[in-house]
Amino acid sequence: MFDDVNIEENCRVCELDPGQVRQFARLFATRRTALRSDLGILMGRHSTLNSYLEMVLLALSGRIGVKGGSIFPGGLSTRGAHTPEEDPATWRTVATNIPQIMGIFPPNVLRKRSITSTPSVSAR
């Protein structure tokens, strides 16, 4: 499927050394390796593409579901405990009354000092 991929040209465009890329790929595929993304890569302009490429890397290198590898790719597992929206103990933002989602607040609803210091009940 990837026979026609020009590794040299792709590395040139990305300003990477093809030898180092091959060495990394060989090490990643043959050692106990796994990936875990965090906000840096997930909050960028190309977050969906990055997430997709992570899955491709894990799949092509055989690192999904193997000892020392990624058991469940990020899109297949939860990022934390479920946060029940109807629970009065669930914290909410002051300005928008948005509840936590899986234990965290979406960054786009946060402002300085926008989270209540004590849980509040949603006005429904």
Can you give keywords for this protein?
single chain; 124 residues; 2 domains; 4 helices; 31% helix; 0% strand; elongated
Tally of extended strands? 0
Order of helices and strands: HHHH
Give a quick account of the main beta sheet: strands, pairing sense, barrel closure.
none
Overall tally of structural domains? 2
The helix-and-strand class reads: mainly alpha
Radius of gyration: 20 Å
Low-confidence stretches: none
Put simply, the count of helices is 4
What does this protein look like?
This protein has 124 residues and is mainly α. The protein has two domains: 7-76, no CATH class; 78-124, no CATH class. Helix content is 31%, strand content 0%. 6% of the residues are buried. The mean pLDDT is 77.
